[in-house]
Each structure stands twice: as C-alpha cells, then as structure tokens.
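Contributing new complexes? Match this layout with zinc ion.
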Amino acid sequence: MRSSLLRVMIVVSMVMLSATSLRAQRLEDLPRIAMDTLSTGNSNAQVIIYTNNTWEFYFPGLDSLIAKNVYNSNWVTDQVFAYKGTSVNDLPASMELSLFSRVGDYKCPVVGRVTSKYGIRRGRNHNGIDIPLKLREPIYAAFPGRVRYSRYNGGGYGNLVIVRHDNGLETWYGHLSKSNVEVGDYVVAGSVIGFAGSTGRSTGVHLHFEIRYQDLTFDPERIFDFETGDIRYQNFVLDKSFFNIRSNASELLEDGEEDIALLATEDGEEITSEDILANIEKIQEAEAKKLEPVYYTIKSGDTLSRIASRNGTTVSELCRLNGISRNSIIRAGRQLRIK
Ligand SMILES: [Zn+2]
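Output block (do not edit by hand):
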C-alpha cells in the first residue's frame, strides 16, 4: 500500500514538472509517463493513467505473491499431483487458513446450482462439485495465486487449470472448453482462468471444481455457497476429517455438527454417529415389535401346557400375560394372549 502511494506521489510530481514544460504539446504527443492510479471494483487491480492518454491495469498484490515460497516448493507443472511424498498422516489435526484479507481477494468461480456434490457417486469418488453452465461462460479464479497446471488431462478432467494460492490451497477447474491462462501466470481473484466446456469425461457443459490441500480433497461447499456466490469464512479451519470423501458440507450445515467416523468395522468400513443412531432405531423398532401382543384362539381339548409348548412359551408366562392361574378353566373359542 505504502509503495503504491509513494509511486503515485512520484508520478504526480513528475506530471507537475512535465505539465509546465509540455503545455504547448498535443496530448497524444506527450511522453508516456504514469500520471495517476484509479481504483477499480477489484481491490487487487488498479488502473494506471498515463500522460499520453493511455492506461493499463496494475496489480499491486502480484509483487508480493511472487516472492512466496508456496509458489516454488512442490511446484509440479506437468502432473496434477504435486505432493506425492507427503501423506495425510503428516498433517496436523486441524489448520487455520486465511481465505482472504480484503474484499475482492476472493470470487466464487461461477454462481449456480450444484447438481453433483462432493462424495461417492455411482461407486466412484467425486472429488469436487459440478455446476452446469452455458458453453464458453467465463470461469474465475477463486483467489489470487499462481497457475500450476494448464493443459488437457487424459484422466478425465479434460482441459484442466490448477491454481495454487497463498495459503497452500489449490483450486481445480475441469472440463473447460478452453484455458485462458498459462503455467506460471499470476492471477488475481476474479481473473478469467478459462471458459466452460465439456472436455474429458463429461456428459454436458459444466464446471467440475475441486479444492485441495497438498493433493487432498475436501468439499468445496465448505468454503463457497455456490448458489449465492458468498464465501463462508474469512479464516477457515480445515479439519483433517474433511479429507474423508464421506465428509461434506451439507451435514455440517444441517445439524451444526460434523458426522465423524467413530469406529471402523473389520473390513475397514467406517461407522459414523449417524450409522449408530440408525442402528439404535432399528433395535428399538424390533423391541417394540416384540412387545406387540399375539393372541391364540383356544380350541376344544387345549390345555395350558399344550398351548405353551406349541407356542414356545411356558404355562407361568401364559398365566402372567392373561392374569390367570394354572388351574383356571380355559374355554374353546376364547382368545389367549401368548406373547
Ligand atoms: Zn464433477
């Protein structure tokens, strides 16, 4: 901020000097000297006005991005995965990530209805979300960052752009009709990184969007409300459990509590609190069924002991259920409760 202010002050004094000496000249003949900066709707972008009546965009934030180590280490540009040596076990239980510090430092890549959520879909992991779009609709960088990957991906993504961000997150944009960036480009939030398409394993024009941390996915709906375009947090607590494909934003929003796996079965299937509640309900239903009375119609010649043995119960149980004694007379045609 301070450096851009300084820049403006230098520019202004230069203009004042040149204005006196060049007063007689036509505007288009003036030398191209920066004269002023204007703010834009995007806090990352300013417009520099030149003395010869031209202008260009200036991105003050980009200077500070370039020096960052996050854009140099694990920097792989020909493969989608960049952190092959690291594992989920190496990560802390949770991390607090700053998503943005100023309004304009984030932009929902597209706004629309999520038609396919993060989770297991037809037996496969769906590592992101899908939003249907019109062909060639622009798709925006979610945060400032640097393009790590931009090429056709044979694994199903089609034309894929991956942008890495300051906080280590990466955003993935798949099935593009065309990329609008090159590897190594620095982008601001809202830069058009490409255009909607249906390349790769896709059945219609849509954006497949993922957010990853060290190659690991979590539900992008934890960060963006795609229907409104709003971001959910300024500082996001990324819990390790979010990397589970079964862990998604909707359960978090429904009951304000994460459905964390509590146990694992012998074949490795995880049991969540939701599963346990469902089981308890099942047991309760079965118990309730057991308590439902069952009746037997007494036939002529029946005795309590014969009825008991035929129905897998005892005489004393029959007496208890029907409020009778062993010596009570039972009559054919009457109902006797046997359960
Ligand atoms: Zn998808």
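Reviewers usually confirm one structural detail per submission. For this one: The radius of gyration is 34 Å.
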